[in-house]
Amino acid sequence: MKDTIPAITTGSLPASRKVYASGNIHEIKVPLREIAISNEEPLTVYDSSGPYTDPLSTVDIATGLGEVRGGWLQARGEIEEYDGRSVTDADNGFATGARLTPAFPVQRPPLRAVGDRAVTQLAYARAGIITPEMEFVAIRENEGRRAAHSRDGEAFGAELPALVTPEFVRREIAEGRAIIPANINHRELEPMIIGRNFKVKINANIGNSAVTSSMEEEVEKMVWAIRWGADTVMDLSTGRNIHNIRDWIIRNAPVPIGTVPLYQALEKVGGVAEDLTWEVFRDTLIEQAEQGVDYFTIHAGVRLHMIPMTAKRVTGIVSRGGSIMAKWCLHHHRESFLYEHFDEICDICRRYDVSFSLGDGLRPGSIADANDEAQFAELRTLGELTKIAWAKDCQVMIEGPGHVPMHKIKANMDEQLKHCHEAPFYTLGPLTTDIAPGYDHITSAIGAAMIGWFGTAMLCYVTPKEHLGLPDRDDVKTGVITYKLAAHAADLAKGHPGAQQRDDALSRARFEFRWEDQFNLGLDPDTAREMHDQTMPAEAHKVA
Amino acid sequence: MKDTIPAITTGSLPASRKVYASGNIHEIKVPLREIAISNEEPLTVYDSSGPYTDPLSTVDIATGLGEVRGGWLQARGEIEEYDGRSVTDADNGFATGARLTPAFPVQRPPLRAVGDRAVTQLAYARAGIITPEMEFVAIRENEGRRAAHSRDGEAFGAELPALVTPEFVRREIAEGRAIIPANINHRELEPMIIGRNFKVKINANIGNSAVTSSMEEEVEKMVWAIRWGADTVMDLSTGRNIHNIRDWIIRNAPVPIGTVPLYQALEKVGGVAEDLTWEVFRDTLIEQAEQGVDYFTIHAGVRLHMIPMTAKRVTGIVSRGGSIMAKWCLHHHRESFLYEHFDEICDICRRYDVSFSLGDGLRPGSIADANDEAQFAELRTLGELTKIAWAKDCQVMIEGPGHVPMHKIKANMDEQLKHCHEAPFYTLGPLTTDIAPGYDHITSAIGAAMIGWFGTAMLCYVTPKEHLGLPDRDDVKTGVITYKLAAHAADLAKGHPGAQQRDDALSRARFEFRWEDQFNLGLDPDTAREMHDQTMPAEAHKVA
Question: In this predicted complex, what is the ipTM?
C-alpha cells in the first residue's frame, strides 16, 4: 500500500472524539481531542490534526477546508482584496499539458494590508490588541485544563504559567518571544503558537517526488503528518508543479505551511544559482505570500566574509539554501541579495503577515563541524536581522542545527537566546552522532529532546531516511511520533504544568493492566495495539 | 523468516575483517574489527561479536566456542577442578522426555577457588597483579589507536586517558570503579570492562519463550545481539529448561552472561514467592556459578521498612525481582534472605568471580515515581552492600532506573556516585516519558544517552516491544543498534579520545558521496544500504 495511497486519511483516532472550546473574547471554536478512558474522566489533549479527524466534517480536497479566520481578518478593517500576480509557466517549472498538475479549482483574489500597514500579530500585540488568533492559541495550549497538574521541572529561564491567558500570549508575541505564523491569505488555518513559554512544537517536511506525485498524494502527505501530531508542515518541493501543488496543500491545511522560497526561485532560473536575482526572488515571495504561505525560510545570514570560515570543515556547507547563496556570493563577489534587500523582504512579509524563519545556511553537517566559527558568526547576523524585522513589525524565529554532540547542545541554546534576543529557536534535531545512518530519527531525537528542554520552541523532525533517501509514509509517521515524544519529554523536563497528566494516566492504566487505555493514551495507538497482539493474541490475555 | 530461524548467523559484517592484536605482557589475542574504506586507511573498531564474524573460525554450537582463558586460569594456580553439583529435575523446571532440552554435549567438571581464596579480578588488582583479562580489555578499549584522536568533551569527573594501559585497568578495578565480569567457569569469554572511565557498554536481554524455544534459537538470540554490538547478554529465561538452555548459551558466548538467579529459584518452588528459602536460592547460585554465569542480579537492597514507601506510588513496584522480594518480606515480616545472607552470597561469588549487579528492586516504573524516597533509600542500601562485597574482594556494579524525566536524570548519577562509592552504574534506559508505547527504545535512548554521558558505565537496552510483548529478531536488532548509538553519543560527549574518529570517517564519506563507505561505517550497514536502494535504485545515482 505504501506510497501509492491517493485517498485522504480521515476519521477519529482510537477512543477519541473532537471537542471544540469557545472563546470568551472572540467567536472562536478551538479544536481539542478527548481520549476516553475506561474508568476515569476522559483526557483532553492538544490536537493539530484539523477537520480530518472530525467525523462530522466533510472533506473534499477540491473545495479545500472551510475558512476559520475569514471573519476575523475582515473585522480588523486593515486588509483589502486585490488582483494578485498572474501565475506564469515558470511558477510551475514550465510544466505543460498532461505534466501540469491542475490548478486548485477555487481561486480567490488575495488579501494584503491596506497601504503600508503591518497586519502582523506582532503589530497587533504591540498595539495592545488581543486578536482571535491569540485567544485561540491560549485556549489550545491549556488543553482543557483549569489548573496546573504538576510543576516539577527545570525550565532554564522559561516562564510557564499555570494557565495560558490571551494576555500572556499577547505579551509574549509583543516581546518577540513567540510567533503565530498566520498569513492573512491562509484563512483555513487553526492558529498555533511557537515560543519557549509554550508547548514544544514539531515540524514535518514534505515535498513532491521527482518520480510521481499527484495533488492528492501531496495533500495526503500533509494530512498524514498532522494526523500523528505535526504542528507545522514545510513544503520543500522542487522541480515541476511547485505552484499548483502548494495551492492544493495550503487550501487543505489547518496548520501553518512553511517554505524555502529560494528553492522555487532557483527553478525559475533553470537551477543555476549564479543566475538568481533579487527580482526573481522578490516575485517568488509575493507569489507565495499571496497563496498563503505562513513562514519563509530566508538564508539572509550567509555573508560573504563567512564563507571562507567553512573551508576547513569536514562537511563544508550542507544546507541547500546556504550552499546556493554561498555559490552566488562567491560568483558575484558581493553580499547576497537576501542580505542587501532584507528591508524590502520585511516590507513584503508585514503586508501578509508571513513570519520569518531565519535560515542557518552555515549550520554544521557533522559532529566535527558543530559550534564552529562559521555557525556562530551567522547566528550573530541572524540576531541583527531579527532586530530589523522586529522594527518592521515582522514575526521572527531562528533556525538552528543540525549535527551537535550532546556536550555542545546547551551552548547553541545559550548563544541563540543571547544573540537573537529570545526570538523562538527552531532546530533540526540536532543529531548527536553521525555513525547511525538509517537511525537518524533517533540520533537526532536525543538532541531534539535536550534542546527542547533547554528552550527550543519548535523541533524539525528527522526521519529514518535522513541522508539516505526520500521518506515514505511509514517514515513520515515514524519521524513525527519520534519528535512528538521528544517534544513531550522536553515539556515534562521543563515542568510544563499540563504535560505529566498524560504520562500519569497511561501509567495508571499500565499498573492496572488496562491494555486498551494504554494503547489509546499513547502517541501511536495502532502500533502499540499491533505489537501487543503479535505476542498475546487472545483477548483473554489482555484483561488482567 | 522471523522467530523461526534455527541457524546461527555467521560471517563478516560488510567490508569488515577480524583482526587480532597481541599482548605485551601476556599471550593474548584481542579481536578487533577493521572496516575497509575506499580511499582512506581502514578504521579499526571495538568488536563484541566473537568468532561468529570470523570467517576463519568454525562454529559448532554443540561443541561450543574454543577456550580463550583456559591457560590463564590454570596459570594462577589458585583454582581446582571438583565434582560439581548434580543437575536436578527442578533445575530444568521439571521438564522431562520430549519437553526436556538436551543437555549440552560436553560437560566439564567445574572450577572453583582453592580453599577460601578470592579468585576475582578485584583481588588480583588489589594485589598489584595485571591479569591477562586486564591486558586484554586495555588493548580492546584502544581499538587499535596509538594516540588520542580528539579530546573535546565534558566528562563530569570521569578520567579518560588518551590510551588505556593495563596498569590503568588494574587501578580502576582495584578502586572498584570498574569490573571485568569473568566467571572462572566461563573460559570461552573474551573479557570486557565496565566502568565510567572506559567506553560506555550496552546489555541486551534474551530469554526463552513460553511458546517455542530450542537451544539453537536461544543461542542464535545471543549471537544476533552481539553481532550488532551487545557487550553483555542477560539470560532472563523462566519456566522449563532454564538450566540446559543456559549451558548452551554460555558455552557459545564470547560475552559475559548475566542472570537473575531469583527467577530460577522461584521456578524451583513452583512460582510461589513466599516459599522461597535461602537454601533454594543458595543452591541456585552455586548451580549457575558452576555453569559460568558472569554476573548475578541480586535484589538485596529491598528492605522491609522500604516497602511501605511504595504505597503511594502510581506504579508500585515494577521490578520483577523487587516485587518477588517485597512479597516474601511482607509475608514473613522479616528482612529478605538476600539481605540477611549477603555475606554468604559474597563467599560464593568470590570463589568463582561472579560479579554483582546489585538490583534496583524499587526502581520507578513511571515518570510519576522517579527519584522518590523508596528508590533512593534502596540506593543507599546498595552502597552499604557494595562495601561488604568489596571487603570480600567481589566485583560490583549497581543497577539503576527505569523511568525518569530528563531533569531528574543527573541526580540519579550524582546520588549513585555518592552513595555507591563510584562502583559502576548500570541503568535500564531511563525512559524519559511514558506516552509512547511501541517507541520505548527511543523514549529510553534519550535518557540512556544522557545518563551515559553523565557517567553510567553500561546501558541495558529497551526494545520497541517494551511493556507490550516479547521482542522478536528485528526488535532485538533495533534495540541493540539504538543503544549502540546512545552509548556512542555518550562517549562523544564525554570526550572519549577515540570516539569521534568513526563519526569523522563517516562524515568525510558523506561529504564526498562515497555511499558504500557511509553504509559500511554505520552501525547497521544493511539497513542503510537497503533504505538508500529503495529510492535511488540505479548504481549511477550512488556515485556523485
Answer: 0.96
